[in-house]
């Protein structure tokens, strides 16, 4: 093909080959258990289209995407309408990446897609800790009689990992029983509403292997309207930046990460997608550098 | 409660009690197999909110909703994420209405919701014919290896009814094999692109029991953008009016009807919802009067 | 001020001084009796902003705005919330224009603003006929117990003019009694749904003084979504063009005109406003040339 | 009717019967004096549609809607276009609720609807104090020569209550004379821009009967774009949460409340409506529990 | 990379390699001379994202994309802000495709991008004829004193080709002089407003080499709002289908084609992009098969 | 013309004649080098339409537009597509204002329009200092090989003014080299991310002549989505208010100002335009009073 023609459809500066890459970014376009506004299936694709709107250099972290080998490998091809089968397809992809000694960085989809990545990771890293950023508890035992749901995903992770391994921040919505699960019974650590304690928590996790899952609806709906279940009273982008700086400064090993719940068709002013792109850049720099 | 306060949430002039009603309108808020843009789950609710924008009298049909006993019974409560179970829940509701000697008029949801209503109807009326208005063939044997899908629903109806019972109009998208199924092998009758032959077909069906299913994407996307899979080149609203007049003039018995695939969150100018409301008024008048 | 700076806020090529003008365009930003979606108060202002998107030359009429003396005189300053007072303010403006031997061309606002212009005109031209283009009958005796309403405006004009003076086209929504008022009792002439008979009617009106009122919701909502009460099944823009050509060819005297019910905040794709601008250009050319 | 069908159109968990209810929620769909962008008439209806997006439990207040008897009684049926008559209709509804020994919680509509509720309340509770949250002073003696206007409503309340009874917070727009009325002449208490002093004020009001009126445009337009007169520089949702916590902690008796000025058709990303739903939940919990 | 991951960013079924392809599709993301609403630079990228919404089979033409070797080669990398240089970059790409014995099919960008493709084509095919579909004449000698402009592009083509080689259809906006250029002086053939004569014209061109340029604003704004200069009164999609059928039936050789002026950020309901995708499918099938 | 008709198209209360004015506001509708989302050409026009939504009195500054002589002189008429010529046209207008002993206050347009105003100003005031508020560094030597670009504009100003004259605030995006230009090599003063040091800087500038340029994308995209390159993590409107208060309190002479990069067609909820209007009011009050 001619030099002047280019058909790259990868996220900004994530153009390493799969073989050369240390971090593999992939999309998991699944929104099948979404109870309110669906559409997160379109997130990764839209982010690739919009990623030219940001720069490769992060002044916050003083790191640059161009200094790392990151491959945006595209979206997982998923079956249609069979939740358990879809989760196994995502787990297969995550396991492949991990077995190739690379780190997975997933773009959801709804939050349930975190579960198969955790299942793949614990086979290699049984002692991982999870930093969970979200507006919602996601701790229900079942939701509409279903065990596999965006509203139960962290409870399912707890089924695997048990007490003392999950740290929740920014939570501001859920049933009273879910808050009690964390705040009274201490099955997880939870800081409701805010993210002030991240710095202390990552200090406690010094030397540990850590996975980060960010439900972008932790951000206030003013900053991130393009999501299925917007919940007023969220954190600002600057508060999220304090999280990134705390993680950069911490002595932890990041074994992977994900960001979920961008629903671009509700992003009428197109700024949620740009927020998601910037979060992905910062996450990728953290995963690649730690 | 005080006289001046009212909390009606029923479609315009469809306020008969269930017991008194001859026609029962209900919503089936399911969009679980949608492959492109989801959101038809919100259709019935949004139509109720907007129905005040039209009148009860149809100058086209010279009939008035206020002269009939129609009950808008609300939405079916559905399980989450288990397609076969959801279909059985819809069938149960439809069967109840039919057994109470009333006619069902359903608002989708995606097109797959037509299947359980047909299943309920054939138990009472084994010889029904279906008039199918749509942009898409919906005749695939499977879609993504699934037999139950919005893209297979008319094929599933054919499984039940067999040759010579399904009449398709306005079809302008599908695989070549699907067009061959109809146009070469004549398993169904099909008029591609247009609806000119409706008048002749309903004359042929004189004295028969007939069910109408309208996938609103038969309308051109200019008229009906608020749908999951808009397909350019559709019919105009006035062409749809010729269908309504032909049915009114025909000597057929309408045993029920549905209209599907309004996805209101893509209806940015809010006119698709008004189109759907007007179609529901005309359909209700036809079902009630014939 | 410097030559390079310009602060014109007039509609395209309607920059004659009031004194020099033969036709005076003005806005009547009133939407106080709107029952469904308000906002026509913003129509004239938005049209001025968007009018650069069209040309001054009409290939349909083979006439050019630059060949006529037309003044866009701005919006009428209106009181707030007192309907009778507001109508008298509009009548005062219209009467001033008429007394200055100029023709009024008004941009609504809701349809009720037509009434004061008719009241001003009949003082000078007691024998005018009205060509009324609309989706709605507007013939109610009262609406919500009010005699002055967008839904009663043509009935109020009939109170003034009596039988045989009002010709209604494109009507497709109303109460049965309103259709009977026209079609059974012949108080007005009415062609429901379409505009085919305009050519014959204007031939009958040969030599007469005629006023044109266009409720833009006569157009199908696909063409004109930006209006308070969109009604499916309307005419196309090309059908409206046949009206303009018939009027151009007719031997009538146009004493004024109006176009109403653009509600620009519902015009999400910004095409209703362009349609309104083009209609205003054609109307202005007709009023100026006949 | 069948069990599986439901047609509830009430706000989330506000399903007590009117007779059993301690708090009666109702809508007042009036926007007749709105000077800029109209449309608040649609607020209560849209909030009912969207209220499923939030939970019944408030982690902020540690209270749950399911523990209280609240009735969403629907919207007041209003006359069309006659402001004094409409206000008397709202007052009649409010008076009925108060006489039935229930507390009114109103959803506007424009801010003028607060006036008839205050008029009804002072007949039973002549000594009420008003906590007023708003971007705008609303203290004009007249607006466009009208005494009854959204821009004069608090001045009208002051006409009834006099000095020392009205506390205004978050005010950031108005005429200099209005600010002087409060800040120089001390007819009302005013904290411009912010809400820091709410805690102190409610401490001063210990033992008193208090009414809360929240004009939602007190929130920054980034958080609440869906309103008629957005005013930059508003408070954040978290700052509003400090207000709710202060009120919960205070020793006051809440005799009623309202929230006004949601205009859902300007809420393109649909987050203003969710903000309004969450505010209504918190307000309802406060009114019910205090 | 793993089998399950795919990062194709090519238009539906246009996945041949450049070497194997008979038709090469490419984007020309330039909108630098746009006078009204810019944004066509985003068209090709957005169409690739949305092309999954249509099928590969065209029932209109009874042809299937999967039966042809078509390569979507991506967008031309363009300099910024220097119009002549940008045009030479596009010409270089087109010339490369032509010299490789493949046919170019370009997605604009504004209409000016047609010029460099014509310049490249005439070097190989000096006798080409152009079928030009558009709302606008595009025949000005200069626009704002510039010779290179979206409003002059067909005049520039005429500079190259001379009289009797350009056929214009659907034109409904321009200056009187431009219409005279075609209709009085016959420098081009022009059918204003409609496309009825395409069948006759292509019959006259039997045996000739033909290039097709479609400015998508030939379609009515109801069908295609997402464009820079929407012009009411355009053709319907079905009328465009008669063009495609006439071309398929004609005995002409298609040497290339383009479609221009999709501006996706104005496509609020996302249907203009689907229209553009379907037009590209039909155009590609015509270019590949003729 | 009649008294009741008015066609003012000037920004709120900026109705002084050019001759009487001390401050001249004008628009520079140029967006020709915009690399991402264009459309700032529409900013000034849209702001005039929306300015009625705010008041003339600023409670923040305790100043009122009605107390100053400000002329909104309209938009500069610009050539099309020739960047150097366009810049000279803007410079000519700015020089005229300055030579008439008035202060220029410009509404962009993209940021490049600042350059010709600076070029005009330095001829009269060679020692000006620039306060630059922005999300982006704008310090590139070239962008896409172009020296004149929105991404190089502050570097071009530095070419004129040299070290120690430019103060940058709120910067959060750019290449590492650009940050080094400021933070390591100190060619400009830069406070990244925030605006805390404005108070100290203006104290240092006591007695100096100062020009203010505000790229409105310094505000967080939640507050200001309607811009070409939204960048998450920006300042709040209240933080911008601290800037205005610091400038009011400082002992500096304002010789002019501009605000750029409002792109109203991306302002779906219409709040960015209101933010821009309020910023213009505060800027105008500062320029007029200092």
UniProtKB/TrEMBL annotation, chains A, B, C, D, E, F:
Record carries keyword Electron transport: no
UniProt keyword annotations, A-Z: Hydrolase, Manganese, Metal-binding
Molecular function terms from GO: agmatinase activity; metal ion binding
Cofactor note: Binds 2 manganese ions per subunit.
Enzyme class: hydrolase
Enzyme nomenclature, EC number: 3.5.3.11
Gene3D superfamilies on file: Ureohydrolase domain
InterPro entries: Agmatinase-rel (IPR005925), Ureohydrolase (IPR006035), Ureohydrolase_dom_sf (IPR023696), Ureohydrolase_Mn_BS (IPR020855)
Superkingdom assignment: Bacteria
Cofactors (names): Mn(2+)
One example of a Gene Ontology biological process annotation: putrescine biosynthetic process from arginine, via agmatine
Positions with a binding annotation for Mn(2+): 111, 134, 136, 138, 215, 217
Entry-linked Pfam families: Arginase
Cell wall biogenesis/degradation in keyword set: no
Family the UniProt entry places it in: Belongs to the arginase family. Agmatinase subfamily.
Protein name as catalogued: Agmatinase
Organism of derivation: Turicibacter bilis
């Amino acid at each position: 093909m001619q030099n002047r023609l280019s058909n790259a459809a990868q996220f900004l500066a994530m153009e390493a080959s799969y073989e050369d890459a240390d971090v593999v970014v992939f999309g998991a376009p699944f929104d099948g258990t979404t109870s309110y506004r669906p559409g997160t299936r379109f997130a990764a694709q839209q982010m690739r289209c919009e990623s030219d709107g940001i720069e490769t250099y992060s002044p916050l972290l003083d790191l640059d995407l161009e200094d790392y080998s990151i491959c945006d490998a595209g979206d997982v091809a998923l079956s249609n309408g069979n939740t358990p089968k879809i989760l196994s397809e995502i787990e297969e992809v995550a396991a492949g990446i991990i077995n190739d000694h690379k780190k997975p960085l997933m773009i959801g989809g709804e939050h349930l897609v975190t579960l198969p990545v955790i299942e793949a990771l614990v086979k290699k890293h049984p002692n991982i800790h999870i930093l969970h950023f979200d507006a919602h508890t996601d701790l229900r035992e079942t939701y509409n009689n279903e065990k596999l749901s965006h509203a139960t995903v962290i409870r399912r992770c707890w089924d695997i990992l048990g007490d003392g391994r999950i740290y929740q921040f920014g939570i501001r919505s859920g049933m009273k029983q879910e808050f009690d699960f964390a705040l009274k019974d201490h099955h997880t650590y939870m800081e409701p509403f805010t993210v002030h304690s991240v710095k202390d928590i990552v200090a406690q996790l010094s030397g540990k292997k850590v996975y980060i899952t960010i439900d972008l609806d932790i951000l206030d709906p003013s900053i991130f309207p393009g999501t299925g279940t917007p919940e007023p009273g969220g954190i600002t982008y600057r508060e999220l930046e304090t999280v990134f700086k705390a993680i950069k400064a911490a002595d932890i090993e990041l074994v992977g990460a994900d960001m979920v719940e961008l629903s671009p068709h509700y992003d009428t002013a197109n700024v949620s997608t740009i927020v998601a792109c910037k979060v992905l850049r910062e996450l990728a720099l953290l995963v690649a550098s730690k």
